[in-house]
Amino acid sequence: MSGSALRAFLRRYMPLFLCIGLLVVTALLPQWFGGRVFERVVTLALISVVLTVGLHWFSGNSGLMSFGHVAFMAMGAYATIWFSLSPAQKAVTLPDMPKDWLLYQIHLPFVGALLAAAALVAVVGAAIGGALIRLRGAAFTIATFAVLLVTHTVALHARQLTRGARTVIGVPPYTTLWVALAAAVVVVIGAYLYKESGLGLQVRATREDETAAAAIGINVNWVRWTAWVPSVAVTALAGGLWAHFITTFSPLAFFLERAFLVIAMLVIGGAESVTGAVVGALGVAMVSEVVRSIENWIAMQSTIAWLPDQAVGLTEAAVALAMILVLIARPRGVTGGSEWPAVPPPAGQAPPHHGR
Amino acid sequence: MNDLAQYVMSSLALGGLYALMALGLAIVYGILNLINFAYGELIMVTGYTLFLLGGLGLPWLLSAALAVLSAVITALLMERVAFRPVRNTSQTTMLITSFAISMLLQNGARLLISPRAQAVPMPGLFTQNVFIGDLRVKMIDLITIAVSLLLLALMNVFLRRTLLGVTLRAAAQDFTMTRLVGIRADAVIAAAFGISGLIAGIVALFWIGKSSLVEPTVGLQPVLIAFIASVVGGLDNLKGVVAGAYLLSFMTVGLQTVLPQVLLDYRQAVMFIIVIMILIWRPRGLLTPRAGGAL
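Above: the input entities. Below: the structure tokens describing the complete assembly.
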């Protein structure tokens, strides 16, 4: 590789290397500063990166916001435990699942279960996406919100598959810090390569000006769908990782508050870039853990008179406030929607025209 | 016969509330193309104001009026503080903003008041029953029907006969043109939010009156109902929205009595699948004539 080709390569992929570097350094922090609690926080933050990059993959590139991705997270979480638990474990964790179901007998190793679940959810999501992708603007967002409500209702009542509204317990804690890091790195690489590919460029073109994109021959619905399917798969993967990290959960874990938190991470960071998704997820996850510990500290203090007895909701309120401020001051997120450092256009092409 | 009369009464009472909820949501949508997720929190704010005023010993009607006023003020503040700065970005950004406001208010209530449900003082009249012939009717249902019909009629007159009402309808049809003839955009939008808050506040009295409880998530169900009714009726067709709401209430009460429990569990899922299908195939609603001018 000649010097100038190497330089061009580095300039093109520098944001990706920096993102991976940031993820690795974050993962190493607990090694240096110790503490099991800190390790938990960092693992959760890395799972949030997978989740947020999953949402970026579709919403960032296409400009259509999905309120329904948490539904795919829920599907991913439950599908992963269907596959990863042995029949004996299912008898405890999913006691309502009929013993004569084929699903009851399936028992895969953890990584196999994650991938199988992501593939299964991707198929379901691909069908849903095929129907929704022709919608635009708020109608799309509202339809995805309806998908979340449908999924939530089904999860609350399909006792055989989810144990209904009751909490699933005894899921083995397979998701370690390193598993989460590996998943985050792989997903970030995938999202970056997709975004910088020809297909990714076409999807981004439909975001900037749909009519113009269609006029130069881009099949708008088709290219958006190619962003939707991997986006759903990655979100499902995040669900599986989360399930095997948190180990006890119910359908309530995958509802409006989670949907809001993921959107907040993406919007605060900057939906249109992978850097934005990574920075937003890590930043919001870490800061909200700090606020959460203040919340818990307040709940434990009983001697300080001026403090309230408890501070439930402080974390969510703080995230919501931060998000409103970002939307007002920097509607494209703290990164402004570009990678860091900004990616130069490929040689021989005119620089993109930002005519907004 | 008695069962049928009972069914009609409950449906009419519920339908009146649904219609008002949907109208409050649709008025803002008409002008800003914004589905305001934080609309439900206006109902929550009304409930909490009523709860906080409960200890003061004011006459109930006075605290109710103050509670409704608090919803109007909250709606105006929402518009001024959060929506106005993002108004010129995109429809999606506004939608996300409304989601954030909803979460902020909900968790603000959780934080500052309590995550648990609180009892709200309601007039004793609400829990009484009256007999019409041998038909036993809940007083709250009767009052709800009367108030909702009155309010819908007043809204109709307001939108047709007053200058502000006509301005609102004009802005809903063509906002740019309305501004070009000298109407101030800020004023129209603020008016739409104010009316939306007023309607939400009045709805809240009866919605919360059913259980006499207020909790941080009390606004979720109303906003979902308003949203289904509006999509069914066609979001930019106010009459369709009201009709959609009544249709929804008759369906809800009807399904409650007809469906077996197993299917009843999935009622919400079925409703939202219908919503998705309408959005895809009849985006202007079921009750808007298909050939309504150029698309």
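Note for the figure: DSSP finds twelve helices and four strands in chain B.
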